[in-house]
Amino acid sequence: MRDYHMHSHFCRHAVGGLAEYARSAHTRGIREICFTPHIPLPGFRPGLMNDRLRMDEGEFDLYLDELSKTRTAFPDMTILSGVEADYLPSMEGWMRRFLSSHSFDLVLMSIHYVSRWTEDEWVFGFDPARTLASVYADYFSEMEDGIATGMFDCIAHFDLIKQPGRPVLATNRDDVGEALAKCAAQGMSVEINTSGMRKEIAEPYPCDQIVQLMIEREIAIVTGSDAHAPSQVGLGFNALAARHGDGLACRLVSYRGRRMIPASPRPACAPMGRG
To answer: How far is residue 108 CA from its own chain's centroid?
Structure first.
C-alpha cells in the first residue's frame, strides 16, 4: 500500500523532518508516499490553536525545498507533493488561488470546522448540548458542500466526527450514503485513514462498515497513516489488508499531478466505477 497522508515538523503539532518519514516508509517496504502538510490559512481563527496546527504561508517554500532534498536522498522511492486542505467557505477564494499556484500531486479535503458552528467549536470540541445525530448531520452537510466545489481530490478521515461507541451509521446512514455518492460523482476518492487505530476510537476513519460500502459502490480508495511522527508511517496497513483483502486492493488508486490512476486490473476486480 501507499501512504498518502503524512505530516512533519512543518505542521507544528507533528515531529520529524521529511527524510525521517521517508526513511521510516522505506524500512517498512513502502515505496510510494505523499506528504500532506496542513494548508496555510492566513488569518483564520488564530485564537483556536490555528498557529499550532499549520505552517505560515511564508514557510511553504521551505517545505518545498526540503521535499526536493528528500526526493534526492531517496531515489528509489516515489515521493509525492500533497496538501491537506480544510474546506472553509470563508476561505474558498484564497484556497483556490493557493492550490492553483502549486503543482500538487494530491489535495486531501478535510473537515475540521463547520461553518454554521460558533468560532470556538470544531470537530474535537463541539457543543455537547446538541444531539450527536445533529452534529453528525452538520458535519456531512459541510462535507457535501466541499465536494461540490471541485477543489479537492480525496476526502480525508471520512468519519472523523464520530464519537466512541456512537458510529455515524447508527444515526446518519443516509448522510453517509449521500456524501459517498457525491464524492463518486465528482470523481474523487476516499481515504482510509489508520490514525484512529492508535487513538481512543480504536478503528480507522472510516469504520470497516463504511469501507465495505465504499468497496460495494466501487469508490476509489487511498490509504494514509496520518503520521505525525516517523514511527507512525504505515501503521495499521497490514490489518486493513487482512480485513478487506482483494475488495480493498481492487479499489486502491494512485495520483500524479492531481490525476487519479486506477488500480491495475486483476481477474478478481470489477472495472473502476463512479459509485
So the answer is: 5
* pLDDT score at 274: 40
Q: Write the single-letter amino acid at 248.
A: L
Over residues 39-75, the pLDDT tens digits come to 988 877 766 555 567 778 888 899 999 999 999 999 9
Q: Which of 245, 242, 249, 239 is nearest to 272 (CA)?
A: 249
How many Å is the Cα radius of gyration of the chain?
18
Query: Which amino acid makes up residue 20?
Result: E
Got the DSSP string for 142-193?
Answer: HHHHHHHHT--SEESSTTTT-BTTB-HHHHHHHHHHHHHHHHHHTT-EEEEE
> Which amino acid is located at 29 in the chain?
G
- Alpha helix (H) residue ranges in the chain: 18-27, 60-73, 92-100, 132-149, 168-185, 208-216, 237-249
Distance of alpha carbon 226 from alpha carbon 196, whole angstroms:
9
Domains and CATH numbers, the chain: 3-261 (3.20.20.140)
Question: 117 near 60, Cβ under 8 Å?
Answer: no
Instruction: Judge whether 172 and 137 are in contact, CB under 8 Å.
Output: yes
Question: Which three cell numbers, joined as nine digits, stand for 78?
Answer: 516515489
Distance CA 15, CA 28 (A): 19
For 76, the 3-state DSSP assignment is coil
pLDDT in tens, 122-170: 898 898 889 999 999 999 999 999 999 999 999 999 999 999 999 999 9
DSSP code at position 37: P
Number of CB atoms found within 10 A of residue 49's CB: 14
Contacts of 181 (CB under 8 A, 6+ apart): 217, 275
